[in-house]
Design brief:
The complex is a heterodimer. Chain A is an alpha+beta fold. Chain A has 6 helices and 4 strands, in the order H-H-E-E-E-H-H-H-H-E. Helices cover about 35% and strands about 20% of the residues of chain A. A 4-stranded mixed beta sheet of chain A has the order 3-2-1-4, with helices on one face. In chain B, the strands form 4 sheets. Chain B has a 7-stranded mixed beta sheet with strand order 2-8-7-6-5-3-4, with helices on both faces. At the A-B interface, helix 1, helix 2 and helix 3 of A face helix 11 of B.
């Protein structure tokens, strides 16, 4: 489990130069996501044209994994329909659960760089935070909810099926 | 290998673990300390040799269990410079503080009464008072820290008002390493405000220095077994003799009663009054063994070794470029720090791969994090089973982390 497989060049690049970072003048939907367990936070700003995401920006702070993952996600939001995004989110989740084969992973493009996180189970929450946050936004899109927030909680899947690693 | 290190390796079997194939460098004792063989043995011994319930038992095993359990209590009390009857066993520091908030404070405080806390408190010494505020309407005030992490003593005195009923503060900060001069503070505040009571969170103090509760002059003092080489699940609460009569029971049930009738009961005397139900017998006995272990080493030796190490660690971390260390130079063996370009979570992951165990996060001190202007820090904390080589490993792992994160990445081409 080398660190280079977790902190890949692509991840470091997104961490240092986050894509789509900033604010939007006109915002149709904004949602906050945070992982209070380790202090990652992000805010997503979306503008829609019908079912398509026209503009997307984000701001946030946190660990390299969460910030890079958000940057990668934000990089692919514009121009996609809600339906397409749901697909990608599902694929991403499957990748995090180690359920995809080589081909399917490649189809995720840049996102495949996060695959290394699977070997560091404690950090998976950091990688999926932006996607769970996005999901929260898409689900509540048509309800007029103020201060949409997704917050990571301790869940049953905190208990691993098998003991990871040697210890 | 020095004789002392040899002893540590033998006494702490978990040091033989090799996470990710590297020697375990355990720098997370502030979260929980390792447990020495004699303590493990004491706990097992209970279950193997004299497993029985305590108090009121007439048979041989129960008699022995009671002797060992009460013997542990006496041992711990002596270790802290007080009488046996002033030490109650609880689950933890957190439970001890909740106990005081729910029993004594709730009984005697009302709307308008003030409780003085500090910015550096652990959540366990904040939340119980917030819960009290919700129930009874007390006012919570906070004393700030200076930029160097020491308590603002003059602000403390300023914020002390005739309405302040309780000062609740930590002996040693689990983030900054700050050691608050409790004896001086208690003398000072009680001089100004004669009815004021003082509760101290001693979780990070007792494992690392000699603590004489009578000298300190506190009214309540809480500590945790698992932070002082003892088992998990046991802690203690000291209640000063001159206040103990004012303290009602917390939990009710067996063991703490004298007589029970249908509509009312009478209580035993402290400490039993504060221990309902079957106690953590094995764990309390284990904690007694931990105290013996400390006695054998001598708290002076313990303090000296740790001071030496933390001095080294503090100096070396401060020297590192891009590293910010929080808290004063004079400190207990806890060092929290942040690094440029590296989130604490990432730092912890990288050093973990080298076998180095540190903690990253808010360390249950969110108000303090806010005061420091960070959302999280990395924290290395020392104990007697650490040595210079451990600091070497930490520094080298941190250097590796810096390297990893500062390398020039290739721009993604898809």
């Amino acid at each position: 489990m080398s660190l280079e497989s977790l902190y890949t060049d692509i991840i470091l690049d997104h961490y240092r130069s986050p894509r789509q970072f900033g604010e939007l003048e006109e915002v149709d939907l904004s949602v906050e996501g945070n992982n209070p367990l380790c202090g990652d936070e992000l805010k997503l700003f979306l503008q829609f044209d019908g079912e398509t995401v026209e503009k997307a920006r984000w701001q946030g702070q946190g660990c390299a994994i969460s910030q890079a993952s958000t940057s990668m996600m934000a990089d692919m939001l514009e121009g996609k329909t809600v339906e397409e995004l749901r697909e990608v989110a599902l694929q991403f989740r499957s990748m995090m659960q180690d359920e995809l084969d080589e081909e399917e992973i490649e189809e995720l493009g840049d996102l495949q760089a996060i695959q290394g996180v699977v070997k560091f189970p404690i950090r998976i929450k950091c990688a999926v935070l932006p996607w769970n946050t996005l999901q929260e936004a898409l689900l509540n899109r048509h309800k007029d909810v103020e201060n949409l927030t997704y917050e990571e909680e301790m869940e049953e899947d905190e208990v691993p099926d098998q003991i990871p690693g040697q210890i | 290998m020095t004789a002392f290190w040899q002893k540590m390796t033998e006494d702490f079997p978990v040091l033989g673990q090799e996470p990710h194939g590297e020697r375990l460098v355990y720098l997370d004792s502030a979260a929980t300390s390792l447990t020495p063989e004699p303590v493990i043995e004491a706990v097992n011994s209970f279950y193997r040799s004299y497993n029985a319930n305590v108090h009121r038992g007439i048979h041989a095993l129960s008699e022995r269990a009671t002797r060992e359990y009460e013997g542990a209590r006496k041992n711990i009390a002596q270790f802290l410079g007080v009488e046996r009857s002033s030490i109650s066993f609880t689950k933890s520091t957190t439970e001890s503080i909740n106990f005081v908030a729910r029993s004594w404070a709730e009984e005697h405080f009302s709307s308008g009464d003030e409780i003085l806390l500090t910015e550096m408190e652990h959540h366990s010494n904040i939340v119980p008072w917030q819960l009290l505020k919700d129930r009874v309407g007390v006012t919570l005030k906070y004393v700030s820290i200076h930029d160097d992490g020491t308590l603002d003593r003059s602000e403390l005195m300023d914020k002390l008002s005739p309405k302040t009923r309780l000062l609740a503060l930590t002996h040693v900060s689990n983030v900054l390493g700050t050691v608050n001069p409790i004896e001086q503070i208690v003398t000072q505040v009680k001089e100004k405000n004669t009815d004021l009571r003082v509760l101290v969170d001693g979780a990070q103090a007792v494992p690392h220095m000699e603590v004489d509760l009578e000298e300190l002059g506190v009214d309540f003092y809480a500590f945790s077994g698992h932070k002082m080489l003892g088992p998990t699940g046991v802690g203690g609460l000291y209640v000063a003799p001159d206040i103990v009569d004012q303290v009602p029971p917390f939990l009710g049930g067996g063991e703490m009663i004298k007589q029970v009738q249908k509509q009312s009961s009478t209580w035993k005397k402290p400490p039993y009054k504060f221990e309902a139900g079957t106690p953590n017998i094995a764990q309390a006995i284990g904690l007694g063994a931990a105290v013996d272990y400390y006695r054998d080493l001598g708290m002076d030796t313990v303090r000296e070794r740790e001071e030496n190490l933390v001095d080294q660690a503090y100096t070396r971390l401060k020297e590192m470029e891009g590293v910010e260390v929080y808290g004063p130079e004079e400190r207990s063996g806890v060092i929290s720090f942040t690094m440029n370009q590296l989130h604490p979570h990432d730092i912890a992951t990288v050093v973990d791969q080298q076998g180095v165990a540190i903690r990253a996060g808010h360390h249950c001190t969110q108000p303090l994090m806010e005061r420091l202007g960070v959302s999280a820090t990395a924290r290395a904390s020392l104990s007697i089973y650490n040595r210079e080589e451990d600091i070497d490993e930490l520094v080298s792992a941190l250097k590796k982390a810096k390297q990893l994160f500062s390398r020039e990445p290739v721009t993604s081409e898809g």
